Amino acid sequence: MKTHHLAPAAFLAAAALALTGCTDNTQAGGDGPIDVVSTADACSVATATAPGGTLTFNVRNDGDQVTEFYLLAEDGLRIVGEVENIGPGLTRDLVVIAPEGRYFTACKPGMVGDGIRGDFTVTAAPAGESVSADRAALQETAVGQYAAYVEDQAEQLVRGTEAFAVAFAAGDDAAARELYAAERMHWERIEPVAESFGDLDPMLDAREADLEPGQDWTGWHRAEKDLWPPASGYTALTNAERQALADKMVADTRELYERTRQLAFTPDKLANGAKELLDEVATGKITGEEEVWSHTDLWDFQANLEGADIAYEVLRPLLTGVDDELDASLEANFADLQALLDQYKSGDGFVYYDELEPAQVRELSAAVDSLSEPLSRLTAAVVK
Q: Does any domain span residue 57?
């Protein structure tokens, strides 16, 4: 299961993440920008700590490929800030506003792959220092962060689909099964966005039970059935059919990525999307209907939960002082559901859904319901 990936993403250079705890200072000690040197195999950051406030990273590319630099939140998924398209020999600045907390820095030579990451800690801002941000600015920041996250996940989905397609078309079923659940998580994290494209969604994610008469069945679940075929009454795809399916999955996913780069988000779309992700869990993953052949529903469950949590996290500053009770309820319920899901982790993934007892399913379902109720109130709170 891959949970920490990077990708090219259009993102606001300055991200106001909190109403307090930030001040104008650049590097630990206030001595200027934090120097970063990116090469083919290293991401050297001059300091691993800095006081909370406005941080400036001066990123120099000493490698021979175009590179990118990221500051990631503690979860390793949320992009706090990024600067991209830094050519060999060039230097660019990334300016972000970061409150106290744990982060990751990352360089991405070649603009592909997972990136070269390192720990980064932001300490408390100097006493008495703070920054104010009006609500419109906070909404704009939330939208920018989420747009970057969606583009990141869509790009990673392209890479994962390409790797899966190679193994699937070659008949390497063991490798394809290993990639299936992990790479689909990128889709599941941004499922409401992917589903907004009414033509691409059924081509990539249609389940057999949902097919209309005469509809061609393509996408992940078509491949799933061929990798985990029924014991009887099933005719396996030919090599040529597998190749055609693999090629279409890659082409459709590349199209999805290109479309996500053109999307415009608003705070209400983020909040509603978070609720939709919990609804996906309640109506598909928790029932075992999503991955009926592979039984990898808990991977999807985890990804839906992560996607909803990311939307909530980027919107949290809009709850401060507006609905602190809702914020506390959401924080607690997200943590409770994650802790419950963690009980079913196995290695890099999870146990298969058909291994769960009915009582365990009911417990998970109850926790989803507990989170769903406060999450349904998020939209009204953030658009005030």
A: yes
pTM over 0.85: no
* 232 and 188 in a common domain: yes
Tokens matching residue 49: 């700590």
In the prediction, which pLDDT does 2 show? 36
The domain that holds 228 is classified in CATH as 1.20.1420.20
Rounded-to-5 percentages of helix, strand, coil across the chain:
50, 15, 35
Q: Which residue shows structure tokens 């005030």?
A: 384
Comparison of pLDDT for 376 and 162, the residue scoring more? 162
How would you class 326 by CB atoms within 10 Å of its CB: exposed for 0-12, middle for 13-18, buried for 19 or more?
A: middle
Q: What is the CATH number of the domain that holds 97?
A: 2.60.40.420
Distance CA 275, CA 280 (A): 9
Tell me, yes or no, whether 186 and 300 share the same domain. yes
- Which two structure tokens, joined as six digits, stand for 8? 């090219």
Q: Which two tokens stand for residue 183?
A: 């790479």
Cβ neighbors of 161 (< 8 A, separation 6 or more) are 183, 249, 250, 253
Angle formed by the axes of helices 358-375 and 297-315, nearest 10°? 20
% of the chain beyond a pLDDT of 70: 89
Number of independent structural domains in the chain: 2
Q: Which helix (H) or strand (E) holds 345?
A: strand 345-346
Instruction: Please state, in angstroms and rounded to a whole number, the distance separating the CA atoms of residues 163 and 268.
Output: 35
Question: Which among 267, 381, 383, 272 is positioned nearest to 329, based on CA atoms?
Answer: 381
Q: Are residues 262 and 356 in the same domain?
A: yes
Q: Is there a contact between 378 and 271 (Cβ–Cβ < 8 Å)?
A: yes
* Token pair in block for residue 292: 């009926």
Domain boundaries, position 183: 142-382
